Amino acid sequence: MGRDTAAQCPTWLMVETAYLNALRSLCQPVRAADFPRSLDPMRALLAELDNPQTRFLSVVVAGSVGKGTTCWRIAQALRSPHPNPSPSGGEGLQTLSSPPLHTMERETGGEVRIGLYTGPHLHSFRERFVINGAMISHTEFIEGAKAVTIAAARLDYPYSTFERATALALWWFAQQRVSIAVLEVGMGGRWDAVNAVPNVLALITPIEKEHLAMLGGSLQTIAWHKAGIMQPGGQAVTGTQDEVVMDVLRMEAARAGVYLNVSPDVVMAACRNLHERNLTQCYSVSTEAPTLPGRLEAVTVGRRTVLIDGAHTRESAERLRAWMKRYGGETDPVRVIIGMLGDKAVNDVLAVFDQPHFHVVLTQAPSHRALSPDALNAQARLQHASVEIVPELNDALAQVHTAPESLFAVTGSLRMAAAAREVFGLLSPDELEEARATRAIFEGEDYLRKLV
Which end of the chain is least crowded, N or C, by CB within 10 Å? Predict the structure, then answer.
């Protein structure tokens, strides 16, 4: 579990009460009626914590799909234990030349410290907070949550879970003296807590229809929210976008005096930007998409191949379908187990699998925001795929052991991906206990009561 080992840390049972109490202290859901809201309260909270965001450089990433993978790739590219990397790089890598390090860069034991803040988590809330590939420890989390809770209490403002978590991440990064942090926006961008942080570079991954109720209901309004991370006089990189989206991004960039670079590979463009401006060292950038838990992850269950992916937009579903071809899923029968949340474009996603060789199993994702399988079926109106409704998620996942297909996919949300990984035995006993305890908090009566 992260950096914790038997020699360094108590067992999960010994830290359970203190850690879960610390996690509960952060929990305050944001409601649709509360959004959008000013960044001023977030800035005030950071000021109470002595403005930790000013002690390191930050790269901010917004978009609809690929944010987490993009953040991870950038963080990896900024890390290297080798002060003089080979100019030839390695297989699947493109290596940049090496200018002098920026004067703000700090090193510990010869390794630059890179912070990574992403979300949502799959199993442990601590997954959101990472330095050089290692999760925050239980002890550090408890300490950070206490600092944030005390600061929020002084301000007497109903900070959301995400605002409190963002403050904790920035506090921890400052405590650990990171050189640069890669921060993933939670929702939208313009009024997201992460946007209270001054960034040296804004990245925008592909934008699609998502969070429609909170982001204005159209592709243009969603793009406007995402474009808000381009801060006045700054620099930004975006990948290839729908022309409607590009019109909004160009207009907002011009309005803010931002240099906007359009590139098919936002990670390579971002690293080159940081590198050429001598803001930090950028080593080798992988040209291959990484295999992250719950993102295009292939596992073997019995004799069957199961593809686990949190796809929840049309583009991400199309990427999953294209990936299936590696495993014979272009024409061979595929059983797709899908559960989705209520704020997603259901028909756009399910239409990708509306072909005769797909057997689509509609079930309910493990979330209070999940749509029922009947609601999914009503919205999807599939014409060619065979459709089966299985209300209980565990029953749907159990089909992996009995159904005739040799290729399965579990998709529709990261909640579905997390559930599949847990059911299929991909976690250690301690990790599974923490996952269950974490889910009990976010789906428990105390939390849900705050949504009313």
Answer: C
| pLDDT at residue 97 is higher than 80 | no
- Residue 202: how many CA atoms within 13 Å on its side-chain side? 29
Number of C-beta neighbours around residue 262 at 10 A: 16
Instruction: Assess if CATH 1.10.10.10 describes domain 297-425.
Output: no
Mean pLDDT value of segment 240-246: 93
Written as one string, the DSSP assignment of 392-414 is SHHHHHHGGGTSS-SEEEEESSH
CB atoms closer than 10 angstroms to residue 312: 27
Phi, psi of 150, deg, nearest 5: -65, -45
DSSP letters, 159-187, are --HHHHHHHHHHHHHHHTT-SEEEEE-SS
Short-list 173, 163, 64, CA closest to 116:
173
Segment 426-436, tens digit of pLDDT: 999 999 999 99
The model's pTM is: 0.88
Please, what's the largest Cα pairwise distance for the chain? 61
- Return the CATH architecture of domain 12-286: 3-Layer(aba) Sandwich (3.40)
Nearest to 19 by CA among 158, 174, 138: 138
205 near 229, Cβ under 8 Å? Answer: no
Residue 15 · residue 145 · CB < 8 Å: no
Q: What's the start-to-end Cα distance of the chain, in Å? A: 34
Residues of each domain in the chain carrying CATH 3.90.190.20: 297-425
Say if CB 399 and CB 337 are below 8 A apart.
Answer: yes
